[in-house]
Design brief:
The chain is built from 16 helices and three strands. With 406 residues, it is mainly alpha-helical. It has a three-stranded antiparallel β-sheet with strand order 2-1-3. β1 (9-16) and β2 (22-29) form a beta hairpin. The termini are far apart.
Length: 406
């Protein structure tokens, strides 16, 4: 029963308003009777209500990604700054979006707001797209009467956080992609190329070098058991993902190990600090109390080690301790960050100081990723050279040996 109550569908409706003018639109609800009741409450006499088909709409659209939400945030902030009413802004952005799923989401929120619900409450009904932090900032803007200003801060925040995520993905994707390509090339050589040399060597009538025998043995294993190796690799990757998702202890161990990884660990540390500073600065500037803001900040760092540390900092701040002292004891924040926070607390400009810290570390991540790419290129070439060159040498060793005998 609970599942039926929670399930929402989109309905298309037609009717007439109090002046007798024909109107139409779409609303979200569990059944047509609920939609009709909502329309009557809004002063609309419903004539037709039918469930919206998803065959050629949302299901054919692309998945809504965080970048879509970041772009929407900026569009909404810009429109409201230009004096466009909130409901009309949702209508314009929604109708003009290329992605049917995003279009449906925005028009559903528009209908919800149009029926009298606060924007924060309407957004909170879609937690996959609008997280708690986003909704809290919007709620603070509505309560303080500065929604337009807060929307600009949210847009800037989303753009900055998405940029930092893109940098991290870039840092991790490049070496991962090269390793995968190297593994595929090696497998192709072992399964298809080495057997050709094996047939040639069978007519030599002489013992093969140990290195060549080892490569031929590996080739025979791959020819006979490649499907087992493939299934094993897929099972390990799937098991790893599931274990990380379900085991807090394993996730903590993994995040801790990632922070200590040479080169990449430095980037992950700087990225976590940048997210922490950017999120806390945005929420504090929005008037969200420091202790209350720390919960959302903890989830925004993207690393369990930092998340746990921030929760401990929150508990200490709640007892009356200064933020900079609690951060210093956490042992994760550089002295420069702690000192900047201390200055911000003393001067009453904590949000500005945190924004400066975020800007600095975002630039640091930018530079570190570019340096990593430059550093990895020769290293990756060397690895590929050893793998492919080793196989080539193993195959030509018997030919060199035969030439020296002759």
């Amino acid at each position: 029963m609970a599942e039926k109550a929670i399930k929402q569908n989109v309905f298309l409706w037609e009717g007439s308003d109090k002046r007798g003018v024909k109107v139409k639109g779409e609303s979200q609800g569990s059944n047509p009777a609920m939609i009709k009741a909502e329309l009557r409450r809004r002063g609309i006499v419903p004539k037709k209500v039918r469930k919206k088909s998803t065959l050629f709409s949302a299901n054919t659209g692309k998945k809504i990604i965080p970048r879509d939400i970041a772009i929407f945030s900026r569009q909404l902030a810009t429109m409201m700054s230009s004096g466009v009413p909130l409901v009309q802004a949702f209508e314009i952005i929604g109708r003009g979006h290329d992605n049917p799923r995003m279009q449906e989401l925005l028009l559903t929120i528009k209908n919800d707001v149009e029926s009298g619900n606060p924007l924060a409450e309407s957004l909170a009904k879609h937690p996959l797209q609008f997280d708690e932090l986003f909704c809290n900032l919007v709620r603070a803007g509505e309560h303080a009467g500065i929604l337009e200003t807060l929307l600009h801060k949210i847009a800037t925040y989303k753009e900055k956080t998405e940029a930092i995520k893109a940098k991290i993905k870039k840092a991790l994707f490049y070496p991962t992609a090269v390793i995968v390509v190297a593994a595929i090339v090696t497998a192709i050589l072992l399964i298809f190329v080495v057997p050709q040399f094996e047939e040639l060597f069978s007519g030599f009538g002489a013992s093969l070098p140990a290195f060549t025998q080892m490569v031929i043995g590996l080739s025979q294993f791959m020819q006979n058991w490649w499907f087992v190796v493939l299934i094993g690799v897929i099972a390990v990757i799937y098991g790893f993902i599931q274990l990380k998702r379900r085991s807090v202890k394993f996730g903590h161990m993994l995040d801790k190990a990632a922070l200590k990884t040479p080169i990449v660990g430095v980037i992950l540390n700087k990225a976590a600090i940048a997210r922490y500073a950017r999120t806390l600065s945005t929420m504090f500037a929005a008037g969200v109390p420091l202790v209350e803001a720390m919960d959302s900040v903890a989830g925004a760092t993207g690393n369990i080690v930092y998340s746990d540390a921030i929760i401990r900092i929150r508990d200490e701040v709640a007892t009356g301790r200064q933020l900079n002292a609690a951060m210093k004891d956490a042992g994760l924040f550089p002295n420069m960050v702690v000192q900047m926070v201390a200055i911000g607390e003393e001067s009453g400009a904590l949000d500005d100081m945190l924004a400066k810290v975020a800007d600095f570390y975002e630039d640091e991540v930018d530079n570190a990723v570019d340096s990593l790419s430059s550093l990895l290129e020769p290293l990756i070439m060397a690895v590929l050279g050893v793998l492919v060159g080793g196989l080539v040498i193993a195959m030509y060793l018997p030919i060199f040996k035969l030439g020296s005998v002759v």
